């Protein structure tokens, strides 16, 4: 087996053997398909600094600080590669996947499938990615570039049922197929709980040293696709009493918010079901974001005249403008708008720190931005000002549902229809998730899995 880093090494890459880490850093740019790049799955750079920005108040329009971890420098340009690696390495360690025999199937709406194609190829496995035909062109190109095969299913982001149907068909047709379902497998949860959450816990102290915040993260905001990323909030809530976890959905597909359904274009989120790995009973609010507002916001951050307006009129540092222009995608803007709404809904002001994630960058959405320009034209200064004021500053407290006992019960109960009726879980398994002890048991397995990783590496 080809084995990469442990969870602890992904959180603290300084613990990787220095020779191995140096080879990995060199390979990141020179030979990106070399398996040594598995050791680049981390939120930290070669100097152990966390990839993050603290957004300017002139853009957000609020007094609270919004800190964004950005995933552009992961081996595939998205942190989903970490979830894919964690899922696969656990399956191999427990004898559920044999690279010499099994074909891996990665159900996805994009970044997890890209991560699966990359990870599977580096770890010696054949990979098939099943995703909707309506996803961005760049996603399909990345998967094929990493050596993965693609099966396209009907629809767009929210058509996950069709993905499940196709994976079931594949499994029934070949006993050597292994489904690595990001929506169900706890390796995804563990990666974000330990690595993403742990990174943010440590970043809070680093921010305080710079005069930002009081050494804590007050809220974590994340849109849900697989609901892996939002598991970071579970770690933060343990570290910081009173911490708030806020989930986001598209207004066009408000499944948890009001049992809603529909198509939308915030690629990577809003998959029209409640995932198995989502700890809904730990969530403090559910908010909905308009997909068009996200695309309008991304157009502001990526067009040259608009970026110049941010620098000259809103006094945003040029380096900040460049990072946002490259490292943010559609769901990144969704998360930022959700963070702004969170500050307003919970009254978080000066001195408060709200954390969120930029899952991927503009490299996956050039075709989407081309379509935006066809409809809205290229932004001049006046239009750019309109986007700042009308998209970011105007984020309001509509479409907000607080995590009352009644709301959490309903969020939990919605899992029944996918996981018990369709995917073979039992009611007893579902009911067990109501207790935080169930989630803590899965969190504590990180240490056991790390021991197995180190033993397998020899």
Give structural notes:
The chain has 458 residues and is α/β, with parallel strands linked by helices. The model has no long low-confidence stretch (mean pLDDT 95). It contains 20 helices and eleven strands. The strands form two sheets. It has a seven-stranded mixed β-sheet with strand order 1-2-10-7-8-9-11. A four-stranded parallel β-sheet has the order 5-4-3-6, with helices on both faces. The chain has a domain at 50-76 and 186-405: Rossmann fold, CATH 3.40.50.1100.
List keywords for this structure.
single chain; 458 residues; alpha/beta; Rossmann fold; 7-stranded mixed sheet; 4-stranded parallel sheet; 20 helices
How would you briefly describe this protein structure?
This protein has helices at residues 7-11, 18-30, 57-60, 80-93, 111-122, 137-145, 160-173, 186-209, 232-239, 255-258, 291-302, 304-312, 318-327, 330-346, 366-376, 381-392, 405-413, 415-419, 427-432, 436-457, and strands at residues 52-54, 65-70, 103-107, 126-132, 149-153, 177-179, 219-223, 244-250, 285-289, 353-358, 400-402.
């Amino acid at each position: 087996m080809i084995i990469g880093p442990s969870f602890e090494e992904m959180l603290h890459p300084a613990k990787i053997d220095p020779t191995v880490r140096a080879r990995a850093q060199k390979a990141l740019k020179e030979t990106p398909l070399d398996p040594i790049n598995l050791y680049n799955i981390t939120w930290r750079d070669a100097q152990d600094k966390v990839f993050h920005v603290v957004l300017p108040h002139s853009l957000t329009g609020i007094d609270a600080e919004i800190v964004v971890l950005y995933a552009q420098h992961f081996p595939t340009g998205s942190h989903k590669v970490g979830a894919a690696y964690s899922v696969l390495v656990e399956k191999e360690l427990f004898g559920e996947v044999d690279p010499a025999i099994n074909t891996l199937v990665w159900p996805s709406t994009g970044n997890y499938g890209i991560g699966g194609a990359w990870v599977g190829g580096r770890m010696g496995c054949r990979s098939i990615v099943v995703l909707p035909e309506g996803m961005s062109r760049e996603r399909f190109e990345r998967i094929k570039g990493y050596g993965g095969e693609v099966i396209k299913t009907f629809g767009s982001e929210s058509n996950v049922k069709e993905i499940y149907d196709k994976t079931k068909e594949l499994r029934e047709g070949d006993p050597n197929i292994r489904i690595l379902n990001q929506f169900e497998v706890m390796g995804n949860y563990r990666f974000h709980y330990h690595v993403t959450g742990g990174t943010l816990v440590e970043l809070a102290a680093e921010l305080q040293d710079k005069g930002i915040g009081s050494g804590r993260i007050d809220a974590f905001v994340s849109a849900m696709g697989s609901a892996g990323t939002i598991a970071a909030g579970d770690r933060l809530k343990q570290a910081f009493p009173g911490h708030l976890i806020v989930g986001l959905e598209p207004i066009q597909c408000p499944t948890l918010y009001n049992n809603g359904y529909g198509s939308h274009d915030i690629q990577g989120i809003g998959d029209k079901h409640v995932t198995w790995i989502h700890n809904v009973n730990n969530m403090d609010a559910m908010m909905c974001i308009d997909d068009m507002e996200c695309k309008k916001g991304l157009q502001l951050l990526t067009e040259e005249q608009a970026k110049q307006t941010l620098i000259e009129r809103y006094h945003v540092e040029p380096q900040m403008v460049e990072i946002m222009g490259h490292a943010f995608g559609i769901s990144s803007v969704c998360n930022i708008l959700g963070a702004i709404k969170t500050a307003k809904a919970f009254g978080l002001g000066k001195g408060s720190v709200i954390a969120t994630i930029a899952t991927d960058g503009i490299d996956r959405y050039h075709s989407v931005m081309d379509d935006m320009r066809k409809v809205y034209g290229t932004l001049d200064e006046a239009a750019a000002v309109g986007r700042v004021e009308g998209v970011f500053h105007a984020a309001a407290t509509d479409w907000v549902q607080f995590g009352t006992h009644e709301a959490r019960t309903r969020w939990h109960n919605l899992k029944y229809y996918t996981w018990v009726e369709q995917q073979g879980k039992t009611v007893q398994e579902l009911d067990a998730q109501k207790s935080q002890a169930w989630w803590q048991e899965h969190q504590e397995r990180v240490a056991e899995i790390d021991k197995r990783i180190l033993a397998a590496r020899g």
